[in-house]
Amino acid sequence: MNLNTIIIICSVLVTVAIVVVAIYLIITLVQMKKTAREAEQVLAKVNADLEVVNKVTTKVAEVTDKISSPMIAAASAIFYVITAIKKKRKGCGEE
Questions:
Q1: Geometric angle at alpha carbon 17, from 15 and 21, rounded to 5°
Q2: Structure-derived torsion over alpha carbons of residues 38, 40, 46, 48, reported in degrees to the nearest 10
């Protein structure tokens, strides 16, 4: 084999390798395009679902704002007193 034949064989091999890499990259880009399209659809659905969640949380906030805070404070105080009494009874029983 002379040097020209070896150079031609190497050139053909490099060309084939470049074509294979190009085909692989094209296939990868097509798959990425499909994935991006599906991700876009999923994000649109999530966005729509978040709008529903936002409406629900707004309603919950409205309801909690309507609950009068003196009632909550009174319930909290009663709970604290009952808890303290239970602790005191439990402490007396241990002695």
A1: 115
A2: -120
